[in-house]
Amino acid sequence: MSEVFMLWIGESKTPIKIDRESDLVMDSTINYYNSSQPQLLYHAGKLFLDSGAFTARQQGIQLERDRVVEIQELFMPDKAVPLDYPFASGMSPSFMAKLWEATRENIVFWQASTKLRGRIVPVLHAWSKSSLVSNLRWLQREADTDTIMLGSLVHPNFTDFSGFFGDRQPRKELIDMISLGIEAVRRYTNFKIHITGFGSSPLSLHLAYYLGADSTDSAGYRRKAAYGKIILPGTGERYISNRSASFGNSRIEDTLELMWLNKCRCPICRGTPRLLIEDWKARAIHNEHVIKQEWQRAQDLMKIGEDAYESYLERIYERSGLKHLWEYVKLRKRYVRISEALFGGGT
C-alpha cells in the first residue's frame, strides 16, 4: 500500500545512526560546505539534500552557487534543492521580487547545467497574493519537478514582514500562510508539497499533514535532545529532569506522561531508560522513534479516512496547549474558500 504522507529524518555529518537504509533522510549542503573532502557517514534509503540557504542567511553566510552544486553532484541525492534566496524582515517587495528572480535563475541552471536534472525540489517564495499565483504558474510551466517546497510566503497584512516561513512558532498567522500556500498550489498546479521543519513534535507534524502537506522533515528531534528534551506520543516535548514525578533517575511532570514512557518501545526505553538523562544521542533515538510512530499513525488513520484522522487529532489537541490553534485550523480547512484567500483584499 502506498504512503499517504512522507517523513524525512534529519541527519548531518555527525549522524545519530549509520544505518539509515530504511529511512528517508533530510540533510543540508551547508553541513559539508567547508569540508575539504565532503562525505556522508551514514547510508540513506533516500536522500533529500537542501541547499542550506535559510541557515546561511540566518548566519550571515554567502553561499557560492558552484560550491553548492559541487557538493550536491558529489552526493547525487534523490531530491536536491537549488540554491534559493529566502526573504528577511524589513525587505521591500521590490527587493524580494529581485531575490525571486535570482531563485528562478538558479532553478533553470540546476535543470539545464547540472547532473541534478529530474531530482530538483524548487522553493516557492512570494511577497503578495498576486505574486504567489504568478510564481506558482511560472513553476508549473518551467520547473521539471513533481514536488515543491514552501518557503518565504509574506502576507500583505504583515507590514513588518515578520510572518513568513522562517518562523515555525505555532500561531494563527503561520497557519494562515500555510493554508494559503497549500490552497494555491492545489488550485494552480499538480505539485506535491513539502513543508520544512514541521516534524519536530507530534503536534506540529499532524498540523502539517492535516492542512494538506504531502511531506515534512524532522531535524528538531536532535535539537530537542541536545537541550535535554524528550518527545512524548501525541503531545509535545518535556524536559527529562527537574520535574515532580520520577522515571528511573529522571523527573517528569505528569503520571500520564510517566505511563507513556513506561510503554515506550524505543531501543532506549526498552533497554536502559536512564540513558535518557545521561546521553543526548539516546534522547535523539527516543525522539526519532516517537516521531516515526506518530507519522505511522497518521498514515494508518488517513488510509481509513479523514474523519478517523480528525477524531484522533481532536483527542490529542484537547489535552494540549494548542487546542485553540487546532480549532482555528479546522475552520481554515473547512470554511475558507480558495477564491477568497487568493483574491479577497489587496495584493
Your description of this structure?
The strands form three sheets. The protein has an eight-stranded parallel β-sheet. It has 347 residues and is α/β, with parallel strands linked by helices. The radius of gyration is 20 Å and the shape is globular. It has two domains: 6-218, Queuine tRNA-ribosyltransferase-like (TIM Barrel), CATH 3.20.20.105; 227-304, no CATH class. The chain has 14 helices and twelve strands.
Question: How would you write the strand order of the largest sheet?
Answer: 4-3-2-1-8-7-6-5
CATH superfamily of the largest domain: Queuine tRNA-ribosyltransferase-like
Mean pLDDT: 87
Counted beta strands: 12
Gyration radius, to the nearest Å?
A: 20 Å
Q: Which shape, going by the Cα principal axes?
A: globular
Helical content stands at 40-55%
For this structure, the CATH topology of the largest domain is TIM Barrel
Number of helices, where a helix is a run of at least 4 consecutive DSSP H or I residues: 14
- Through-space gap between termini: 42 Å
CATH class of the largest domain: Alpha Beta
Biggest β-sheet description: 8 strands, parallel
Strand content: 15-25%
Count of the domains: 2
What CATH architecture of the largest domain do you see?
Answer: Alpha-Beta Barrel
Helix-strand makeup class: alpha/beta
Instruction: Give helix and strand order, one letter per element, not per position.
Output: EEEHHEHEHEHEHEHEEEEHHHHHHH
The unreliable regions are: 158-167, 242-252, 337-341
